[in-house]
Write a structure and sequence with these properties.
The chain has 451 residues and is an alpha/beta fold. Helices cover 35% and strands 18% of the residues. 52% of the residues are buried.
C-alpha cells in the first residue's frame, strides 16, 4: 500500500466504493486523511463500514470545509452529465481528483525521479503494460505493475529511487489526474470508445494526449490520424517523442521467437514496449529475451497448449467481430470455436477471413446466426457446448494437413448466455483443452484488463 501522506489532516470526501475506491479509501486513511466515503450502492457502503471506513451521505457534508473530492474512475466526471457529487464539489470550488493523481503527489514527495511508466490507448494497453513490466523484471529490476490492469495503483509498493512503476491508465483515470507526470508516457492508438463519457472523439483524444504532455519522454503510435496529429503537436512544442508504427518508422523488431506476440496489433505493442525499455538503457538482447519469454495475457490470444502439430489458443476476450479479427488474421488453418450471446452485426465483418478457417464449431445462442453467415463456403458444425466444440475441433485439427493447425477460441460474441464473463469462458476452454489426451501446456498467461 502507498499511504497518501499528502492528504494528512485534510478533509476528503470519496465517492465510489468498488475495488479501486476501497483501495483509495484505505490509502487515504493510512496517510492520515479525515475521510468520509459514500456510494450509491448500499452494499458497497456496508462493505466499507465493515472495514471501519467512515461513511456518510456526501449530500449532508459541509462542502465549504472540504479539501477535496476523490472520485472512483467509473463515476461520470463530465458526460453524459457530471455525477451529483461532482456538481457539489464544483459549486464549492473543491478539486476533484482520482487515485492516479494521489499516486503522482506521493511520488513527488517520496522519490520524484523514480522510474514511472504510464501507458494508455484505446486497444492494447493491458498487453503493452504487462509486456514492459515483464521485460524489466526479466533483467532483475524492481517492478510494480498495476493501475487499470488488475492491482489498484495505491495497492502497489511506494515509489523508491530504483523501483519501476508500470501503470496502465484509462481515459477516466487520466481525466482525474491533472498533474500526471510519468518518466515515460505511452499512447498506443485512438479509435472511438467511451464517447458517452467524454462527449466527442476530440475530447477523448485530448484527454489521452495529456498523459504524453506531462511526461518527460513520450512514446506515441502513429498508425491512426488522431495519434499522428498528437505526436506532431508534441514535437512542435519541443517534447521528446519517439513515434512507433507497424508500417515503418520507430525502429524494427524481431518477433519470430515471441509466440505470444503474433499479429500487427502485437507488433505495435512490442515496438512501444521496446522503445520504453531502450529509454531506460536496456540492450537489444535484453529486450529480445523479454519479448520471447512473454507469456501473454490470459484470455487474449493466450497460447494454452500444444498437441503434436496442433496449437490451442484462448482469445475469449474477443467478444465482438472487431476483436476476433485480430486473432483470426494471425493464424492459418484455423479450427474456430465461436459463438455465445450475439452482438449487433454478428460475424459479417469477418467474411474476408473465412478462407483461413478449416472448420467452425459454433456454440451458444449465436450458433444459428453464425451458421447462416458462414453458409456453404465454410464448413461448420453446431457444437452447442464449449466442451463438445473443443473435443471435435481437436480431433479434426489432428487430421489436418497443415503444418500447424490451430484450435482457436475467438467467440466474436458475449459470454453471458453460458458463462458469467469472458474470463470464466476462457477458463472453461483451458480446462477442456487440458482434459484432452497428450496435451503439453505452453504458457499460463497473466491476468489483465483492456477496459
Amino acid at each position: 500500500m502507498i499511504p497518501v501522506t499528502t492528504a494528512k489532516d485534510r478533509r476528503i470526501a470519496l465517492f465510489g466504493l468498488g475495488g479501486s475506491g476501497l483501495s483509495t479509501a484505505r490509502a487515504l486513511i493510512a496517510g492520515g486523511a479525515r475521510l468520509t466515503a459514500w456510494d450509491d450502492n448500499p452494499d458497497a457502503v456496508a462493505r466499507a463500514q465493515a472495514e471501519g471506513i467512515e461513511t456518510g451521505d456526501l449530500r449532508d457534508l459541509d462542502w465549504s470545509a472540504l479539501d477535496g473530492l476523490v472520485l472512483a474512475p467509473g463515476v461520470p466526471l463530465t458526460h453524459p452529465k457530471p455525477h451529483w457529487s461532482v456538481d457539489l464539489a464544483a459549486a464549492a470550488g473543491v478539486e476533484v481528483i482520482g487515485d492516479v493523481e494521489l499516486f503522482c503527489r506521493e511520488r513527488r514527495v517520496l522519490a520524484p525521479k523514480s522510474p514511472f511508466v504510464a501507458i494508455t490507448g484505446t486497444n492494447g494497453k493491458s498487453t503493452t503494460t504487462a509486456l514492459i513490466a515483464h521485460i524489466l523484471r526479466e533483467t532483475g529490476r524492481d517492478v510494480q505493475l498495476g493501475g487499470n490492469i488488475g492491482t489498484p495503483i495505491l495497492d502497489l509498493e511506494p515509489p523508491a529511487p530504483h523501483r519501476f512503476h508500470v501503470v496502465e491508465c484509462s481515459s477516466y483515470q487520466i481525466d482525474l489526474a491533472p498533474s500526471l507526470d510519468p518518466s515515460v508516457g505511452v499512447l498506443l492508438n485512438l479509435s472511438p470508445d467511451h464517447l458517452d463519457r467524454h462527449g466527442s472523439m476530440e475530447n477523448y483524444a485530448a484527454i489521452k494526449a495529456r498523459l504524453l504532455q506531462g511526461s518527460d519522454y513520450a512514446v506515441c503510435g502513429i498508425d491512426d490520424d488522431f495519434c499522428r496529429r498528437i505526436a506532431i503537436g508534441l514535437e512542435h512544442d519541443g517534447k521528446m517523442v519517439e513515434s512507433v508504427s507497424v508500417n515503418g518508422g520507430g525502429g524494427s523488431i524481431d518477433l519470430s521467437g515471441a509466440p505470444s506476440l503474433r499479429g500487427d496489433h502485437n507488433l505495435q505493442n512490442a515496438l512501444a514496449a521496446a522503445a520504453v525499455c531502450r529509454s531506460f538503457g536496456l540492450s537489444t538482447d535484453e529486450i529480445t529475451a523479454g519479448l520471447n519469454s512473454f507469456p501473454g495475457l490470459a484470455h487474449r490470444m493466450q497460447i494454452v497448449a500444444r498437441r503434436g502439430r496442433t496449437l490451442f489458443v484462448n482469445d475469449s476476450k474477443a467478444t465482438n467481430a472487431d476483436a476476433a479479427e485480430k486473432s483470426l488474421s494471425s493464424f492459418d488453418a484455423i479450427h474456430w470455436v465461436a459463438g455465445g450471446l450475439p452482438k449487433e452485426g454478428g460475424i459479417e465483418a469477418l467474411r474476408p477471413l473465412f478462407g483461413r478457417i478449416e472448420k467452425a464449431y459454433l456454440i451458444g445462442e449465436a450458433a444459428p446466426q453464425f451458421a447462416a453467415t458462414l453458409g456453404e463456403a465454410t464448413p461448420y458444425e453446431i457444437s452447442g457446448t464449449l466442451d463438445a466444440a473443443v473435443a471435435h475441433a481437436a480431433a479434426a485439427a489432428e487430421r489436418s494437413s497443415s503444418p500447424e493447425p490451430v484450435v482457436l477460441l475467438a467467440p466474436a460474441a458475449a459470454s453471458f448466455d453460458q458463462f458469467r464473463n469472458f474470463e470464466k469462458r476462457g477458463e472453461a476452454f483451458v480446462n477442456a483443452v487440458m482434459a484432452l489426451m497428450d496435451v503439453e501446456p505452453v504458457m499460463a498467461g497473466q491476468t489483465g484488463s483492456e477496459a
